[in-house]
Amino acid sequence: MAGINARRHRKRKLKAEINVVPYIDVMLVLLIIFMVTAPLLNLGVDIDLPQSNAKSIQEKKDPVIVSVDASGNYFLTVKAGSNEAVTAETLTAKVRGIVSQNPDVAVFVAGDAKANYQKVMDALVLLQGANVKKVGLMSQPDQATQGQANQGRR
Predict the structure, then answer these.
(1) Parallel, antiparallel, or unpaired for β 83-86 and 107-111?
(2) What is the reported pTM?
(3) pLDDT tens per residue, the chain (154 residues)?
(4) Strand 64-68, strand 107-111: pairing
(5) Count of Cβ atoms closer than 10 Å to residue 96 Cβ
(6) Neighbouring residues of 111: CB distance < 8 A, sequence distance ≥ 6
(7) What Cα–Cα distance (Å) separates residue 91 from each residue in 98, 120, 127, 152?
(8) Which residues make beta-bridge pairs with 67?
(9) Residue among 69, 86, 79 nearest 126 (CA)
């Protein structure tokens, strides 16, 4: 009986080795997959930038600003400080004349915060009718939000 107990005791002996062959196989498969797919990943975007014979800007031209006040009236600012009230027809005619002389003039729309949104959209339609290709919308940053952002930078 002593021999049977010794055999059982030998069978119960644990191995202290870890079979790492399956882990190595998985690792090699993943390595091959990453080596094959890495060159195929295109991290950048190829862009053909336009070529230009640009000269330095000698004169600074003031933008054209179309303002819409809270009651829906239109105002046209062509030069700094010259803010004149205009009707829809006058606005279209004047802006059309300015754009025909200088197609690259910057045109902005400034709408009062309390202005009717439809009036601002009407101003955009009027500018489109005056052959303006690009229009920018002006805004003023919120003072409370700007104050919080400045505190975070300190």
Answers:
(1) unpaired
(2) 0.53
(3) 555 665 555 566 777 888 888 899 999 999 999 999 888 876 655 656 666 666 644 545 778 888 888 888 888 888 766 778 888 898 899 889 888 888 888 888 888 878 888 888 998 899 988 888 888 887 766 655 555 555 554 4
(4) parallel
(5) 16
(6) 67, 68, 117, 119, 120, 123, 137, 138
(7) 11, 13, 8, 43
(8) 75, 110
(9) 86
- CA-closest candidate to residue 88, choices 76, 105, 106: 76
- Exposure on the CB side of residue 117, measured as CA atoms within 13 A: 0
| Signed CA dihedral, 95, 122, 112, 143: sign only | negative
* CATH number for region 64-140: 3.30.420.270
Calculate the CA 142 to chain-centre distance: 20
Cβ distance 77 to 67 under 8 Å?
yes
